[in-house]
């Protein structure tokens, strides 16, 4: 938990951070967020996270403070909270008015919030997890990292009730992503993952794993795999900034790779760890 958080130019204790009840983030979820992992005091793939933040802000026509501002916030968050390994959280809403109106009544000053939480960095191969298949009930602009996450929360609650780590979402017969992750299927030595369109959030860890896979000479196809193909997969794993590369051994009652971490997934786990080591030592 942060000792200090940033809110609209002030550094304050979390319990003292307050926003107006007329803030459009509070009333309408009119805002975006971004999460940046930090290893050994250094933000990992930060330029890609900040580019995604810029794309999300632009989609909502909310002004961006610019990369130097965000890098400065990262530096101060780590220093003020004495955290070396952590997850930086940024949130920007359109701002506050003095009454509730669906459309802004004038030019608003965005509300900017930032915090950091400790991250337990691991270096081993995670135990394969269970996921549960769910229809993707979310809106049709999943490429925007919106703070409107009610659909994601409902899906995560359902997954938890099924004893699963994460939902595996589908639209029609196509797998899209998770509630806070991207999925990769492995079949006959090749990787398959949903394309970066409006139906998924383009994960930064997803992007990096594709790059690592290609460095290893593994074929990668950015095309959706099907619900009807799940029983035929050799391996399945998910990616996210907090979980990195997480093997999946079970989808409801379907066992993947006899519930064990597959060889290609393990290769990518190790490649990801090696990229962290290089990042920390460079």
From TrEMBL:
- Its GO biological process terms? amino acid biosynthetic process; folic acid biosynthetic process
The name this protein carries in UniProt is: Aminodeoxychorismate lyase
What Pfam families does its record include?
A: Aminotran_4
SUPFAM superfamilies, alphabetized: D-aminoacid aminotransferase-like PLP-dependent enzymes (SSF56752)
- Catalyzes what? 4-amino-4-deoxychorismate = 4-aminobenzoate + pyruvate + H(+)
- Protein's pathway: Cofactor biosynthesis; tetrahydrofolate biosynthesis; 4-aminobenzoate from chorismate: step 2/2
Print the keywords alphabetically. Aminotransferase, Folate biosynthesis, Pyridoxal phosphate, Transferase
- The record's EC number reads 4.1.3.38
> What's a single GO MF annotation on this record?
transaminase activity
GO-annotated cellular components = cytosol
Q: Which InterPro entries does the UniProt record give?
A: Aminotrans_IV, Aminotransferase-like, BCAT-like_C, BCAT-like_N, Class-IV_PLP-Dep_Aminotrnsfr
């Amino acid at each position: 938990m942060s000792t200090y958080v940033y809110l609209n130019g002030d550094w304050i204790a979390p319990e003292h951070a307050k926003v107006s009840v007329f803030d459009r983030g509070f009333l309408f979820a009119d805002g975006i967020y971004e999460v940046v992992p930090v290893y050994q005091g250094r933000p990992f793939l930060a330029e890609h996270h900040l580019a995604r933040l810029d794309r999300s802000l632009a989609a909502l026509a909310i002004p961006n403070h610019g990369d130097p501002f965000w890098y400065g916030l990262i530096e101060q968050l780590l220093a003020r909270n004495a955290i070396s390994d952590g997850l930086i959280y940024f949130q920007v809403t359109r701002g506050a008015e003095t009454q509730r109106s669906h459309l802004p009544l004038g030019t608003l000053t965005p509300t900017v919030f930032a915090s950091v939480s400790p991250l337990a960095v691991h270096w081993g191969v995670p135990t394969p997890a269970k996921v549960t298949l769910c229809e993707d009930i979310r809106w049709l602009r999943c490429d925007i990292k919106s703070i409107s996450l009610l659909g994601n929360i409902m899906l995560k609650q359902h997954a938890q009730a099924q004893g699963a780590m994460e939902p595996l979402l589908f639209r029609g017969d196509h797998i899209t992503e998770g509630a806070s992750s991207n999925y990769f299927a492995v079949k006959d030595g090749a990787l398959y993952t949903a394309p970066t369109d409006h139906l998924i959030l383009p994960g930064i860890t997803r992007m990096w794993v594709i790059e690592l896979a290609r460095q290893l000479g593994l074929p990668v196809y950015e095309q959706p795999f099907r619900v009807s193909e799940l029983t035929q997969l050799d391996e399945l794993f998910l990616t996210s900034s907090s979980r990195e590369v997480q093997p999946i051994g079970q989808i409801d009652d379907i066992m993947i790779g006899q519930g064990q971490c597959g060889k290609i997934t393990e290769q990518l786990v190790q490649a990801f760890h090696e990229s962290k080591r290089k990042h920390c030592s460079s």
